[in-house]
Design brief:
5-stranded antiparallel beta sheet, elongated, mainly beta, 12 strands
Length: 196
């Protein structure tokens, strides 16, 4: 995450309108609303993600896992309406279990308005774990390092993954993920139409 955002904008001309209804006041103040839908990608990165050793030797434990600690830091997420808010690691036999908590923190809606504008399919997010690539996560449609999750009614979701430990020394790697979704927001502003 280099905090550089790519963006695009479009100016839409609304044309000229003549308001012909009779009003009691000299000015008319309606609310103008617009609903926009756009594809969004949340980028996520943690620099020091511990891949533990399966060895019991203390010299092989160059990094350790604290299962009570949330390893997400303030700069881990790109500024996005859907974020990975928590990652916890826990040793299980010869692997590390990774629990990701994902939450909608923006005030818009997650709905497939790009590919299928008539869709009633809400709160679907495609998660890609890019590093480590050999991680196995439990998604709606099966397991792997990429798949779909659904936000619950409280706008959160949990994703549980496992990564095999290593027989030699433990080591740190980058943990990188991305969340893909369509996002809809409604923006409203009062305008003043002056009497001619």
């Amino acid at each position: 995450l280099n905090n550089e955002l790519e963006y695009d904008d479009t100016i839409v001309a609304l044309g000229t309108a003549t308001y012909t209804a009779q009003t009691m006041s000299p000015d008319y103040k309606p609310d103008l609303s617009i609903e926009v839908c756009y594809p969004y990608k949340t980028m996520f990165k943690i620099d020091k993600f511990c891949i533990p050793s399966t060895s019991r030797s203390s010299e092989d434990q160059t990094c350790t896992i604290d299962q009570t600690k949330n390893i997400v830091t303030a700069n881990s997420n790109s500024g996005a309406p859907i974020q990975i808010t928590s990652i916890r690691q826990e040793m299980v036999q010869n692997a590390v279990r990774i629990t990701l908590e994902i939450a909608k923190i923006g005030d818009g809606k997650v709905i497939d308005c790009i590919e299928n504008p008539e869709s009633k399919d809400k709160n679907k997010i495609t998660v890609h774990i890019n590093s480590p690539a050999d991680i196995i996560c439990g998604f709606t449609e099966g397991s792997g390092n990429s798949g779909t999750i659904t936000l619950k009614s409280d706008n959160t979701a949990k994703l549980v993954c496992e990564k095999a430990g290593v027989p030699g020394k433990a080591y740190n790697i980058n943990f990188e993920a991305s969340l893909d979704y369509s996002y809809t927001q409604e923006i409203s502003k009062q305008v003043i139409i002056k009497k001619a």
